[in-house]
Amino acid sequence: xVKNDKTNIQLHLLxxxxxxxxxxxxxxxxxxxxxxxSASKQAIAKMVEDEFKVTVxxxxxxxxxxxxxxxxxxxxAYPGTTYRQDKKFAxxxxxxxxxxxxxxxxxxxxxxxxxxx
Length: 117
Hints:
The chain has about 120 residues and is an alpha+beta fold. The chain has a single domain, classed as RRM (RNA recognition motif) domain (Alpha-Beta Plaits), CATH 3.30.70.330. It has helices at about 20-25, 40-50; strands at about 1-5, 10, 30-35, 55-65, 70, 80-85, 85-95. A hairpin with a 4-residue loop joins strand 1 and strand 2. It is flat and about 65 Å long.
């Protein structure tokens, strides 16, 4: 948790997203993080550097608009539409040689010989 002095807000960093698209981006040293809507690029870069002990070279941000959903307060009362909350994601590029472990990869176990049981 990092405290941003300018706006005095608490920023919580979750884990990097483990999706197919973010896994493909990791080959270019880019990691995707869900962040609060009020987080700035500078605060995100500092937060990632402090949390994972890496060097950030670039930060891009994306805000996804919430999806439209229908609602009703009864059979015939006030049908309408509303929107889900917006989501903000940060695409963080790291320095050459730095990496973040996203997937839990077990230690390679010693393989047993076919004759041993």
